[in-house]
Design a protein that fits this description.
87% helix; 0% strand; elongated
Length: 60
């Protein structure tokens, strides 16, 4: 039990050393990730649609 308590104390000390982002930075980074994800989903969806169209039109 002492080892677990010691481990948790060390974790707390290490977490105090972390440079945490501000709230604004976190919101900005989250919006960037969501934006890139939406862009990639649309891009890949259009590519898939284009390939399907080409296959249906010229191969089948």
């Amino acid at each position: 039990m002492d080892k677990i308590i010691q481990f948790l104390k060390e974790v707390r000390v290490e977490l105090a050393k972390v440079s945490w982002p501000t709230r604004n930075q976190t919101v900005l980074y989250t919006l960037v990730v969501i934006g890139i994800s939406v862009f990639m989903a649309v891009f890949l969806g259009l590519m898939d649609f284009g390939y399907k169209f080409m296959i249906d039109k010229f191969l089948l």
